[in-house]
Amino acid sequence: MKNFKLKIGALSLSAMMMVAVSCSDEFLEVPPTGLLAEAQLSSLAGIEASLIAAYSQVNGRGNRLGSPSNWVWGSIRGGEANKGTDPGDFATINPIQRFENNSASGEMGSKWNVAYEGIARANNVLRLLQNPGPDVTESDAVRLAAQARFLRAHFYFELKRDYGDTPYVDENIDYGSGLEEVSNNQDLYPFIEADFQYAVDNLPPTQGQVGRVNSWAAKTYLAKVYLYQNKYAQAKTLFDDVIANGVTSNGLKYDLVPYYDDMFRGANDNHQESVWAYQAAAGTGSVLNANPEFDLNFPYNTGPAGPGNCCGFFQPSFTFVNAFRTDANGLPLLDKSYNDPANRVKNDQGLQSADPFTPDAGNLDPRLDHTVGRRGIPYLDWQDHPGTAWIRNQPNGGPYSPKKYVYARSEQGSFQDNSSWTPGYTGINFMIIRFADVLLMSAEVDIETGNLESARAKVNRVRERAINSELLREDGTPAANYVISTYDQPWTDANVARTAVQMERMLELGMEGHRFYDLVRWNTVQEELDFYFALDGTILTGALGGARFTDQYRLVPIPQDQIDLVGADILIQNPGF
Predict the structure, then answer these.
(1) Are strands 425-426 and 401-402 parallel, antiparallel or unpaired?
(2) Max Cα separation, the chain?
(3) What's the CA gap between 525 and 79, in Å, rounded?
(4) Beta strand pairing call for 425-426 and 416-417
(5) Residue 168 to residue 183: CA distance in whole angstroms
(6) Residue 411 · residue 382 · CB < 8 Å
(7) What is the pLDDT of residues 313-351, one digit of tens each?
(8) pLDDT of residue 470
(9) What angle (nearest 5°) sits at the alpha carbon of residue 147, between those of residues 253 and 437?
(10) How confident is the model at residue 34 (pLDDT cuts 50, 70, 90)?
(11) β-sheet bridge partners, residue 472
(12) What is the pLDDT of residues 18-29, one digit of tens each?
């Protein structure tokens, strides 16, 4: 901080000297090009553009670990995926998946930087609205502020889940007005709640542009924030309203998309299940407008016979795949016996693509094959997954490939972008909250408020869609032995119901970045990650051998470079780091 102030002082002295020797040369004073004056930004068009800049930050703008997909922070840390690929590629993820990262590790600031950039952009909108131009009406100011506050709340919620409490900065604090003195000693949740409540009260139910948030998205997100704090009564009121009456920004009644995979196809973007998604587009001249965080997460070395052709990251784990095993009645193995040798899903680990292999013939939930690419099963509309030919380093990552948010052959050139180093940029929207997530969060709340049968009905609604989502081969036959059913016996035990809902969230929302955060808030993170490492750690010994979760890793450490900027007395490090 002292060095910073000294540099500023030196710059100021130099500036004064320049003024002293050139005060008569007014013709030399040329306004800098490429900058917008505040008068321009304070117009309606200027504030709208500033708000769009805040929206654009949601996807991370090319920071692969900064977006709300949370493929590393939520899915890899949650044990449903391994980093995969080769151990030397993007090696800074290795200590994250092993829970060995420290405050100076390379990626600790990824989410921090993206979120605070988003907060700064939202605050800029709110700051401009303090002195708007004459063409900004009162109703304009309210609708713009409501969107900016929704986005600010989202970015702070992302920070809260990963880092715990971080410095709260609003539109009234800036450089030179106390920003460098703001500590992280305040609970962020009251600020997050206040912003979302403002959005609930002031956003319209629909929007002229589907990418803008509406009041129903705000109610849903606020309910989620209440759930994370165990405020079940408040969450229930909102969830009940959202499920009964909620609509998308383009006016579609919230509902489940009838066929599971259709959610992840670009032609169906902004469907009835999309509560809030960031808008992705291909062919705009910048891949940052697509899904820039997923460019690595495609099967490896596919050539023209598969998508992406790079780089083999984000490989589903053995434990996650095994969880899709069902019993004779089509229900999950809630006793967690799916990792027992007799129940594990057959795989081609250790085999080459030329070696003979027959896929698993046992009972499976069909959502497995909409989520995971596995050998001998159709990989979208490309071909049957060939096994190790599409796997970069099988001993390091396992035999599986990711499948959600991967473009189909039929989407090439339309919802896929060929303008960069890899074709792995898609124009498929990423859903931050979708309706099945809402139903399952609401089911949790029902259990905690004593409404077990309501919870069962919501879980069954999700499972009924899965029943109708068998993956079919070209000849119309099922690609595997799909045996799945609903829970037909009344739920009378809250613990059993809780286990069923928690399992359903993994099966339904797998590889979508939720898992680690769920485990933490359920306080099952130690048990579940011990279970994951017990199997995956013994198979993938190079990547995971000896790894273990400990309680300090419930939170990501505050980035050391941020502490160095302001001092450890202001920015307080999380315990254990």
Answers:
(1) unpaired
(2) 91
(3) 10
(4) antiparallel
(5) 8
(6) no
(7) 999 999 999 999 999 999 999 999 999 999 999 999 999
(8) 98
(9) 40
(10) low
(11) 478
(12) 333 334 445 455
